[in-house]
Amino acid sequence: MQEQFISEIKESYAFKGDSIVMGGAMLNGECQENAHVKLPLKMMNRHGLIAGATGTGKTKTVQVIAEQLSKSGVPVLLMDLKGDLSGLAQAGSNNKHIEKRHGQIGLDYKEEAMPVELLSISEEAGVKLKATISEFGPVLFSKMLDLNDVQTGITTIVFKYCDDNKLPLLDLADFKKTLQYINTDGKKAIEEEYGKVSSASVAAILRSVIALEQQGAEMFFGEPSFDVEDLVRFDDQGKGMISIIRLTDIQNKPKLFSTFMLCLLSEIYHSFPEEGDMDRPKLAIFIDEAHLVFEEATDALMDQLEAIIKLIRSKAVGIFFCTQNPEDIPDDILGQLGLKVQHALRAFTAKDRKAIKKTAENFPLSDYYQTDELLTSMGIGEALITTLNEKGIPSMLAATLLRAPLTRMDVLTQDEIQDLIDGSKLIKEYNVAIDRESAYEILKKKMEEAASEEKQEELRKEQEKARKVSTRRRVKEEPSFLEQMSKNTMVRQVGRTIAREIMRGLLGSLGVKKSRSSKSWF
Predict the structure, then answer these.
(1) Which of 20, 135, 425, 443 has the most CB atoms at less than 10 Å from its CB?
(2) For the stretch 464-475, what's the b/e string if a residue is b when 16 or more beta carbons lie within 10 angstroms of its beta carbon?
């Protein structure tokens, strides 16, 4: 049985083209000498899954595959959410445990450092990855925001208006300012040109944008845009560059992570040319903690991801998901994964046991293993492996004692990280502040001018109103000619009346005196 097992392993994993050795096949808990389990480079664009419970060795498996791909001249992109993959930049160290393991497998061990570039979409040190809103396009951007059909239509109008009026749509501030403009000053003109815009829908879109901003997305949108061709680089020795995106500070921001992943995969898909079947992939992408991509993904986003994953292999790109349980991966995507590396699972509850049985059904039937039982009994650094041979046929299932990483199985120190950054050629290109005039500045100026004109118009109207009030008051206070004449006549009349009364008084007095005089004369 043992000889037959070894013979079948050698036959199943005998590939004509180049391959990488993952470890040695195990039977009854023992590693079989020279029964190497390999992965054909030609089929590494068929995607894969690396799963298993916490502490079973998934991260070290990613490290091993990345090393071997780099040594084979395949560039690698790693999503490092836990921060424990940076050790790829430094050579590992041999010890008796590694020597024993490699002795059982039948492999030599020689520690070796790999070429590494550190990238970041947040405050972490590294080459800053950015993309502009325009590069997303209205459809993808709407899916990212989980917008309905009406809101997607308004987003399309925003993109169209900015294109027609030469308004660069670079970051979230540009998009928000454009929304604000089409809902206020520019609403009438835009509705005449592009159709009616609902204020309620604009407000809903703004709320979705703000929700994305709360997870730090404003750092990702902007310039300079990262050129995905810079992921496909090699060092002086021909090793593929391992680009590590440091994501330790966005574990609690799944919306941002899924948004970033969708943007990156879309950009790679649309930028890379069709390659057909190559001897080795052009780029291998490993997504750690893959459940974060799918947990916050909307239905529209999921449809987009599924489409990209199905089609991107024609660009010679392989995508590998790393997660705790295969159930974290949607079935439609799981069915696209040619490579499966399954570490041990833990059966603590009835639900766990059901999940293990379901996981076992995803593997080829085996005459040598009781798969569901083996899934709970494997040790650290052991895994069930099946892959596709060069004809696209699944290989036989192999319980595998995995080889040890050639690089450091620990994180880099801050000084070592700084040395990597100081030696980076991309830092000088991408870590620069660019804030050119875009939709935000142009529309802000236009809105300020409109507000100034409106204020001046209001001031003019107030001045005109005040002038009219003043005129009416003056007209009321200043008497007309007739009124003046009437007043003058009245004054003269009063004057004459008073004069007559005075004269009468005087004459009366004179009359009395005269009488008295007359009386004395007679």
Answers:
(1) 443
(2) eeeeeeeeeeee
